[in-house]
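Sample pair:
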Amino acid sequence: MKKSPVFLSLLLLPAIVSFSQSSNKLHYKATLVDTHNDILSAAMMEGKDISHRIKEGHSDLDRWKEGGLDVQFFSVWTDKVPRNKEGFFKDATQEIDSLDKLVRNNPGRIILARTYKEVTKGIDENKLVALIGVEGGHMIEDDLGKLQELYDRGMRYMTLTWNNSTLWASSAMDETLHPDSLQHKGLNDFGKQVVRRMNELGIIVDLSHTGEQTFYDAIATSTKPVLLSHSSVWNICPVFRNVKDNQIKAVAKNGGVICINFFSGFIDSNFAKKMNELEGTKGKQIKDSLQQFYDAAKLNEIWRQRFSAELDPLRPTLAQLVDHIDYIVKLVGDDYVGIGSDFDGVSSLPVGMDDVTTYPKITEELVKRGYSKKSIRKILGGNVMRVMKANFK
């Protein structure tokens, strides 16, 4: 007798439920570390209280708990033009102030860690461990004294550049798209001095956003394992922010970790191509054709809707996201990859990965692919914990 699809599904249901329960058990027992989240600049600087669940954005304390997150590096970010008239450094300290306020208001739920011992203590106490990552060397304003001050405030990694280059380090965006604008390529003598001082203080050198020359100069200068806090694989999605095979091998040789960015445009090349079209000449032509019919505010609203409608069907899958993890593991092993979501800093995410409650889906996908429990624990957080231990005082 031929069995119906419904009957077969009912037979398989106990196995599916058991698999899901096993995956969840592994996920919530493992230490989960996310090395990049932009909630400080995306919401807290706008006065939003993330102590409890909010409707906007990707993150808050309730949802982090639901997603099984143990350690979050909070990104301190400011654009190429500072918000405050005092400059970039003031922007950075202002964002750190907002994180300090969150910690003070929720002492039973979150702790700001400065040492590796404080990180493990917070995990043991079942609190969210907050760490500070400053996204862009422009915030030290070419001043080693300000590097020290940010360290004293809790900064435990610094991304040498954001999209903008500094006087001492060239960015991936500038090295790739604006090479003629650069006064120099890579790290100059002061840039190497910054890296050495970061090693001395116990600040992880973060090489996301850096140009290839800066990357190689920094990795040659650093005596400690480095981090790429939110970057993905160039060979899968060839965009300037992703890293090539030789860079992945260099990180492995250094003992560092590459933490995969969830942004759709860094995961899938089809999405990236369409996004570039809409942001380039083709998109400008469409926008210009609408300009005669609407005022500026209405035009921007219509364009956002059009932009989303064009891109949403091209969002990558969870499997495509995990392909980036898989690629690094197959190239150099399971000791050199982690999670760097970029939640609250990106405009598009893979289907089903809509906020921080969805981390368990990554664990489930890794289990489906046959990863061992030991490997999954490394990928979810163990690898980054090793880099923290090697760098922190």
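Residues 270-314 form one domain.
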